[in-house]
Amino acid sequence: MDYEGYFKERLDALRGEGRYRVFADLERRCGSFPRAFDHRIGAEVTVWCSNDYLGMGQHPAVLAAMEETLRAVGAGAGGTRNISGNSHIHLLLERELADLHRREAALIFTSGYVANDAALSTLARELPRMAVFSDAFNHASMIAGIRNSRAEKHVFRHNDPADLARLLDRVAPDRPKLVCFESVYSMDGDISPIGELCDVADQFGAMTYLDEVHAVGLYGARGGGIAERDGVMHRPTVIQGTLGKAFGTIGGYVAASAALVDFLRSHAPGFIFTTSLPPALAAGALAAIRHLKGSQAERDRHQERAATLKRRLAEAGLPVISSASHIVPVIIGDATLCKAACDELLQRHRIYVQPINYPTVPRGTERLRLTPTPLHSDADMEALVAALSDVWARLTLRYAA
After folding, report:
1. Model pTM above 0.90
2. Looking at 8, 153, 177, 245, which residue is catalytic?
3. Rounded CA gap, 220 and 302, in Å?
4. Could you report the per-residue pLDDT of 169-212, keeping only the tens digit for each?
5. Phi, psi (5° rounding) for residue 156?
6. How far is CA 330 from CA 15, 66, 91, 390, in A?
7. Could you tell me where the beta strands, DSSP code E, fall in 78-182?
8. Closest to 229 measured CA to CA, from 253, 210, 254, 252
9. CA distance between the termini of the chain
């Protein structure tokens, strides 16, 4: 077989469909966010698609904690958590996360993707005769974890408790069951009915696994997520989150009962055989969590910025999805045009947005996914809306109905 030829053929197909992914060559500059230097064009740009939702990646408390820990203990962790890579700062971070979600324990992983893959694959694989029920819009990391478990899988209609009940009713009552869903879905920005889904799961004796990666730090009185905001944080069996979005660093975690967390610690290959997070990163995440537990200012400003941007886009006639969260999707509906719009924004307006294409979203729903932060000013928004209006006219894109 011509291996290299096959690889090139597949890449050419992606290019032909307008789905070939081009990495930005950005240089974030501490203290200047949401500005960054784009080495492709040799100019400063305004970033409108960052998952550093609150700008905590440059917060003084986070930077100070990381610098202090880096100079105190060095760069790397020194190994896996089971051998020599466990440190006091890892334990402090896990205690803080358990407290954030009002759980007995938490376990940190090297990323949110790894947390979902490792936790879900382990739970679904190790419990005999497990049946897993997954929301149709679940993230790729959840789908990977479920698939890797090789457990029986059922997909219920997005955010539909009645369809979940219908599928659960088909499975023998004595079998273990796990219901998996997210709180905020990152492409449409819609929010799940956590309490109703937990009601259905409880009715059929199922565990529940809630992914809060796009909500932790951003919602709730202490940043515990949508479940905290809605008064149902005690309901899910497992809460999974990330340190790489609102908390501004990197890493993932799960929070649950002490026994369940210890079970994962003892059985999940994705945890056991991976070098642990560098202590400095753990220290930065710890500082971010502690700060956001006590400060509502960032969350209030973030919600105001998101609402303001949605209103201004709608007033300009742009096809924005009026989501219930901070996610601001603007629909284009064609992969090639989506890429062209992003190129125009970058080259002519010094605005960086990444196109969102299939398989991240269904074909025909290609979009720009805008993520306003507390650090985006009114002037930034005015410039973005004007730039989008210009691009829409130049490319003759569809306006809102």
Report:
1. yes
2. 245
3. 13
4. 999 999 999 999 999 999 999 999 999 999 999 999 999 999 99
5. -100, 155
6. 23, 36, 41, 15
7. 105-109, 131-135, 152-156, 177-182
8. 210
9. 50
Q: What is the pLDDT of residue 369?
A: 96
DSSP state of 191: B
> Tokens 């819009």 label which residue?
137
Q: Is 293 a catalytic residue?
A: no
| Residue percentage of the chain with pLDDT more than 70 | 100
- The span from the CA of 354 to the CA of 370, in Å, is 9
**Exposed, middle or buried by CB within 10 Å (0-12, 13-18, 19+), for 92?**
middle
The residue among 29, 18, 76, 6 whose CA lies nearest residue 337 is 18
Task: Indicate whether 318 pLDDT > 80.
Answer: yes
d(Cα 158, Cα 193) in Å, to the nearest integer? 10
Between β-strands 26-28 and 35-38, what pairing exists: parallel, antiparallel or unpaired? antiparallel
Cα 323 to its chain centre, rounded Å, is 16
- Give CA–CA dist 127/267, Å, rounded: 12
Rounded CA-CA distance 239/367 in Å is 29
Helix axes 112-126, 258-267, angle to 10 degrees: 90
Q: What is the pLDDT of residue 266?
A: 98
DSSP 72-136: HH-SS--SBTTTT---HHHHHHHHHHHHHTT-SEEEEESSHHHHHHHHHHHHHHHSTT-EEEEET
Q: Provide the β-strand partners of residue 210.
A: 181, 239
38 neighbors 45 (Cβ within 8 angstroms): yes
Tokens of 351: 């605005």
Judged by average pLDDT, the poorest of 12-21, 33-42, 292-301, 334-343 is: 12-21
Question: Tokens at residue 123, please?
Answer: 């739970």
Contact, 97 vs 116, CB < 8 A? no
> Quick check: 299 and 359 in contact, CB under 8 A?
no
Tokens in use for 172? 């023998």
Q: What is the pLDDT of residue 400?
A: 84
Instruction: Give the count of beta carbons closer than 10 Å to the beta carbon of residue 27.
Output: 10
pLDDT of residue 253: 98
